[in-house]
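FW: tagging you since you asked about this chain on Friday. Here's the raw sequence from the shared folder, copied in full. Didn't touch anything.
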Amino acid sequence: MKILITGSNGLLGQKLVYKLRHKTGITCIATARGENRLIHTEGYLYDSLDITNKQNVEEIFAKHLPDVIINTAAMTNVDACETDKENALLMNATSVQYQVNALEALHQDNPNYQPHFIHLSTDFIFDGTHGPLDESEKPNPLSYYAETKLEAERIVMASTLNWAIARTVLVFGIVDNMSRSNIVLWVKSNLELGKTINVVDDQFRTPTLAEDLADGCILMAEKRATGIYNISGKDFYSILELARVVADYYGLNKDLIKPSKSADIKQPAKRPPITGFIIEKARRELGYEPHSFVEGIRLLEDQIKEMGKS
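HL: got it, structure written out here
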C-alpha cells in the first residue's frame, strides 16, 4: 500500500511518517512545501509539494499514484486565518478541491485506480454550546478558520472518491528539533520560571496526543474506513483543569495558574466554548484506543529526554 502524506513537516505529518516508514507492506511518501525538515530521512520517499499549486498537485499524484492520501496540510493558526482570509481559503479548502479533482481525474483515466482520501478536520466547526460531541453533531462555525475547514469537509463529501474525515481536538505533541510549543510545554515552562499564567476556565476540550491521532489515521487507512470519525483523546477537561493536571504531573505550583474568561482574551477569532469528542465510533469500528492525558504527558517527557533537551 502506498500512503502519501501531505504536510509531512507538521506535527501530525511527522508522527505519521515515523510510524509508517518501517511498516511492512507500506511505502510512505512524505510531501510538504519546500525541504524535508524531518531529522530521520530513511525508510520513506520525500517529494516537495505545494498543495495550493494545482499543477504541482496533479504532477505529484500522477507520479506516485498513492493508494491512500492523508491530507494533514492546513493553515491552522486560527487568528491568522481571521486576518488573512485569502490564504486561509486557499490552504484549507481550495487546496482540498485541487487534490480531490486530481484524484478523480486519475481514476477516470484508470478505473482500476481507487484512491482513498483521508482528510483532517477540527472540533472548531462547531459552535461550542455543549459537548462532548458525536459524529452526527450539526456544524455551526464561529471563525473563518472553522468556515474554511467546514468547506473542505463539504468538498470531500461531494467527491466521487472513497473518502474519510478524521475530526480532532487540541492536538499536542513535539516535533523534531522542538521547533514549536504546545499547551503542555507552555504550562510547564512558565510555571518552572515562576511566572503567573492566565488560563481560561470556560473552554472544554478532549486533548489529543499527536501519536494517537496518527494511529487513528493509520487505522482508517488500513481498514479503508469511509465516513466521519472523531479521533481525539478520551479525557474531557476545561483548559484550566488541563493546566492543573500538567502542574500536578511535574510537581509545580498550581497557585500560579489564574482562572480567566475567554471574553478577557483579545483574540481576532472566536473559539467554541465547549467541544470535546465522543470516540465510541472509532473505538468500535477501528479499534482506536487513545492514551489518557497523563500518559500523553509521560510520552512527551520521554521524547524530550531522548532529544537531550530536558
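FW: The chain is about 40% helix and 15% strand.
HL: agreed, and The two ends are 38 Å apart (CA to CA).
FW: great, closing this out.
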